[in-house]
Structures are given as structure tokens and as C-alpha cells.
Write a structure and sequence with these properties.
Helices cover about 35% and strands about 25% of the residues.
């Protein structure tokens, strides 16, 4: 009886161990699950990118609508006159525009015929703005204070700056038009961006940049190939006739996707 009980204990021990077949079965199941996870990873990544763009889109739409409430008009776009079938026609460049400066505010210096960013650090000649965007000036601007720096501003100057409509954006949402300061025609000009691979100011890549070195997707901005700009139209917009069209284009899994402020 004792021997029989002893044998029973040994048999019970063998039942607690894994057999080779069981181990192979577990490994096979894990492999299948791992394959499923790997297969779903690109889908999850694409969803995350789209969610990020939609969140930024919502923030920009809110800022633009707030601008409209302040000034009674939407921020101007880059409209220009072209010839179509022998007739003058208004067209819009959705990429090169003053949207960033209109939403952040600027200081105008009439003596220098230029604008300064709201922080008074960067000067942009009015002629350059006209060359790039077809606009001679900015709606959201106030006279530049005579002094530089907050410590030297008079109470009247500070009050004037407070009148600016001002929104702040993260580094990844703004990028310079040029990739290098050595580029021909370089001017320190910023665009609202979905993402970029870097710019002339030294900022590292951020957001969802435009794919580089892919002949299927030519860069939207030749002077900064990694720059992926927001597109904006307020002159006779196609999708939102009574307001504006704002959209981003991103490349996901080899496909171009458009995410805009309309049902798509």
C-alpha cells in the first residue's frame, strides 16, 4: 500500500509537468498571437496619426472661428489672379499664406515697411510677405512699440500689444518655409505645419512630416521637403462655401489621406 501511494505521488508529479507536445502547442499559439499583433501595428499607427491630425484640426478651427468673431472676417488666404480660357480668374494657393501670423499677431513698423512677430524678435519685410502670399499686410497687427523688450515699454505700448488676437502653438505645429538659411531667397517665414523633418531655425523633426525621397509624393514645399503644411482657403472655398476649407494631407501606408474640416 505504501508503495502504491508512493507511485501515485510520482504519477501526480508527472501530471504537473508540460509534455513536449504541450510546449509546442503553446509556442504555436504565442506565434499566432505575435503575428496578429505585428499585423495590427500599422493599422494602430495609422489610427493614431489620424487622431493626432484631427485633434490639431479642431484646435485650429476653434482659433480661426475666434479670429472671425474678433475681426468679422476669416484670416485671408493666398488668392491671386490667373488666366483661364482667356478670362481672368481668381485662384488660391492653399499652402503659402499668412495664417500663422494672423493667428499669433504681429507688430507693424511703418517707417521700416515691415512687420515683427508678436515677441518682437523676427522682422519680415512687407514686400516679402507680398511676394510670398500676395498680401501686402496683416489684419491682426498693431503698431510696434518704440522700445524693445517688456521693461522699456510704456503703459500705452503694453496696452496696444494686449489688443492683439494671439494664439500660441507648439514647435511641431509651426515650421520655416526654408530648410536652410543658405537657400537662395531665404526669408524667415513660418507656416502652420502638420509636421516637419527640421528647419532653418535648427528645430528637429516633429509631428507627421512629409515623406522624403519618395517620387510618388513630391514635397508640397520645395524649399523644405520635409515640411507638411496645413492647407487653407477662405476665398470661395469648395467644401465649406460660407466659411473656409482647412485640411491636412498625410501619407499612411503608401497612401495619401486628406483630413479636413468637412465631412469626408
Amino acid at each position: 500500500m505504501k508503495r502504491s501511494a508512493h507511485c501515485g505521488r510520482r504519477e501526480g508529479g508527472r501530471r504537473g509537468a508540460f509534455t513536449l507536445i504541450e510546449l509546442l502547442t503553446v509556442i504555436a499559439i504565442i506565434s499566432v498571437l505575435a503575428g496578429m499583433v505585428v499585423g495590427l501595428a500599422p493599422v494602430a499607427s495609422a489610427k493614431m496619426k489620424e487622431a493626432r491630425v484631427r485633434a490639431e484640426l479642431a484646435g485650429l478651427v476653434t482659433a480661426i472661428e475666434s479670429y472671425k468673431s474678433r475681426f468679422g472676417v476669416y484670416p485671408p488666404d493666398h488668392a491671386y489672379t490667373t488666366n483661364y480660357n482667356g478670362q481672368p480668374t481668381t485662384a488660391v494657393d492653399p499652402i503659402l499664406n499668412t495664417l500663422y501670423y494672423e493667428l499669433t499677431g504681429a507688430l507693424v513698423d511703418n517707417q521700416r515697411a515691415s512687420f515683427f512677430t508678436a515677441d518682437d524678435e523676427t522682422e519680415i519685410l512687407s514686400a516679402k510677405i507680398d511676394d510670398l502670399t500676395g498680401r501686402e499686410g496683416l489684419v491682426n497687427a498693431v503698431p510696434r512699440p518704440a522700445g524693445s523688450g517688456g521693461a522699456t515699454l510704456t503703459a500705452a505700448d503694453r496696452q496696444a500689444k494686449r489688443k492683439l488676437f494671439s494664439r500660441e502653438f507648439k514647435d511641431g505645429q509651426v515650421c520655416e518655409l526654408f530648410r536652410s538659411t543658405n537657400s537662395a531667397g531665404y526669408v524667415d517665414f513660418e507656416l502652420m505645419a502638420v509636421g516637419h523633418s527640421g528647419d532653418a531655425s535648427g528645430k528637429k523633426g516633429s509631428g507627421i512630416s512629409w515623406p522624403l525621397n519618395d517620387s510618388r509624393f513630391p514635397p508640397p514645399v520645395a524649399s523644405n521637403p520635409g515640411l507638411n503644411p496645413w492647407r487653407y482657403v477662405s476665398t470661395n472655398p469648395t467644401n465649406n462655401p460660407n466659411s473656409f476649407d482647412l485640411w491636412a494631407e498625410i501619407v499612411v501606408k503608401g497612401e495619401r489621406r486628406i483630413i479636413g474640416n468637412w465631412k469626408n
